[in-house]
Amino acid sequence: MKISIITATYNSAATIESCMTSVLNQTHPNIEYVIIDGASTDETLKHIETLALKNNNIVLTTEPDQGIYDALNKGISKATGDILGFVHSDDLLASSTILSQIANVFKN
Hints:
There is one protein chain. The protein has 108 residues and is of the alpha/beta class. It contains four helices and four strands, in the order βαβαβαβα. The protein has a four-stranded parallel beta sheet with strand order 3-2-1-4, sandwiched between helices. Helix 1 links the parallel strand 1 and strand 2 (31-37). Helix 1 runs parallel beside helix 2 (44-54). The longest helix is centred in the middle third of the chain and has 11 residues, at 44-54. The protein is globular. The two termini are 12 Å apart.
Protein backbone atom coordinates (compact mmCIF):
# COMPACT_ATOMS: atom_id res chain seq x y z
CA MET A 1 0.00 0.00 0.00
CA LYS A 2 1.52 3.27 -1.14
CA ILE A 3 1.26 6.29 1.14
CA SER A 4 1.71 9.79 -0.25
CA ILE A 5 2.72 12.44 2.25
CA ILE A 6 2.31 16.04 1.14
CA THR A 7 4.21 18.97 2.63
CA ALA A 8 3.54 22.54 1.53
CA THR A 9 6.35 24.90 2.41
CA TYR A 10 7.44 28.50 2.02
CA ASN A 11 10.53 29.95 3.67
CA SER A 12 10.71 27.10 6.18
CA ALA A 13 14.49 26.71 6.37
CA ALA A 14 14.42 26.49 10.17
CA THR A 15 12.06 23.50 10.27
CA ILE A 16 11.91 21.70 6.91
CA GLU A 17 14.84 19.35 7.51
CA SER A 18 13.42 17.93 10.75
CA CYS A 19 9.99 17.66 9.15
CA MET A 20 11.37 15.77 6.17
CA THR A 21 13.53 13.53 8.34
CA SER A 22 10.48 12.47 10.34
CA VAL A 23 8.80 11.37 7.09
CA LEU A 24 11.88 9.83 5.48
CA ASN A 25 12.72 7.75 8.59
CA GLN A 26 9.40 5.91 8.54
CA THR A 27 9.45 2.11 8.61
CA HIS A 28 6.66 1.78 6.02
CA PRO A 29 8.38 0.62 2.81
CA ASN A 30 6.31 2.45 0.20
CA ILE A 31 6.16 6.20 0.76
CA GLU A 32 5.94 8.91 -1.86
CA TYR A 33 6.92 12.29 -0.41
CA VAL A 34 5.40 15.21 -2.34
CA ILE A 35 6.84 18.60 -1.43
CA ILE A 36 5.29 21.76 -2.83
CA ASP A 37 7.45 24.80 -2.26
CA GLY A 38 6.00 28.25 -2.91
CA ALA A 39 9.26 29.60 -4.42
CA SER A 40 11.03 30.09 -1.10
CA THR A 41 13.63 32.85 -0.92
CA ASP A 42 15.55 31.47 2.07
CA GLU A 43 17.55 28.22 2.43
CA THR A 44 14.47 25.95 2.29
CA LEU A 45 15.25 24.56 -1.17
CA LYS A 46 18.86 23.84 -0.22
CA HIS A 47 17.65 21.61 2.64
CA ILE A 48 15.06 19.88 0.45
CA GLU A 49 17.46 19.28 -2.42
CA THR A 50 20.15 17.87 -0.09
CA LEU A 51 17.72 15.26 1.22
CA ALA A 52 16.27 14.62 -2.25
CA LEU A 53 19.71 13.59 -3.50
CA LYS A 54 19.66 10.73 -0.97
CA ASN A 55 15.97 9.79 -1.33
CA ASN A 56 14.43 8.97 -4.70
CA ASN A 57 10.90 8.97 -3.31
CA ILE A 58 10.75 12.78 -3.10
CA VAL A 59 8.66 14.62 -5.68
CA LEU A 60 9.50 18.34 -5.55
CA THR A 61 7.69 21.23 -7.17
CA THR A 62 8.80 24.78 -6.55
CA GLU A 63 6.76 27.65 -7.98
CA PRO A 64 4.71 30.57 -6.71
CA ASP A 65 1.29 29.66 -5.41
CA GLN A 66 -1.77 31.41 -4.08
CA GLY A 67 -1.36 30.26 -0.49
CA ILE A 68 -1.25 27.05 1.50
CA TYR A 69 -4.52 25.62 0.19
CA ASP A 70 -3.42 26.13 -3.41
CA ALA A 71 -0.13 24.39 -2.57
CA LEU A 72 -1.90 21.49 -0.82
CA ASN A 73 -4.22 21.05 -3.81
CA LYS A 74 -1.18 20.95 -6.11
CA GLY A 75 0.22 18.22 -3.87
CA ILE A 76 -2.99 16.23 -4.03
CA SER A 77 -2.98 16.42 -7.83
CA LYS A 78 0.61 15.09 -7.96
CA ALA A 79 0.16 12.33 -5.36
CA THR A 80 -0.20 8.75 -6.58
CA GLY A 81 -0.61 6.90 -3.29
CA ASP A 82 -3.48 4.77 -2.02
CA ILE A 83 -3.49 6.88 1.16
CA LEU A 84 -2.84 10.64 1.27
CA GLY A 85 -1.63 12.53 4.31
CA PHE A 86 -0.32 15.96 5.18
CA VAL A 87 2.68 16.87 7.31
CA HIS A 88 3.17 20.61 7.49
CA SER A 89 6.67 22.02 7.20
CA ASP A 90 6.91 22.83 10.91
CA ASP A 91 5.45 19.51 12.11
CA LEU A 92 6.88 16.05 12.85
CA LEU A 93 5.39 12.58 12.71
CA ALA A 94 4.88 11.12 16.20
CA SER A 95 7.05 8.04 15.68
CA SER A 96 8.93 6.19 12.96
CA THR A 97 6.20 3.54 12.81
CA ILE A 98 3.14 5.78 12.54
CA LEU A 99 2.68 5.35 8.77
CA SER A 100 2.98 1.56 9.10
CA GLN A 101 0.30 1.69 11.78
CA ILE A 102 -1.95 3.78 9.53
CA ALA A 103 -1.43 1.36 6.62
CA ASN A 104 -2.38 -1.57 8.89
CA VAL A 105 -5.62 0.15 9.87
CA PHE A 106 -6.50 0.60 6.20
CA LYS A 107 -5.62 -3.04 5.42
CA ASN A 108 -7.83 -4.31 8.22
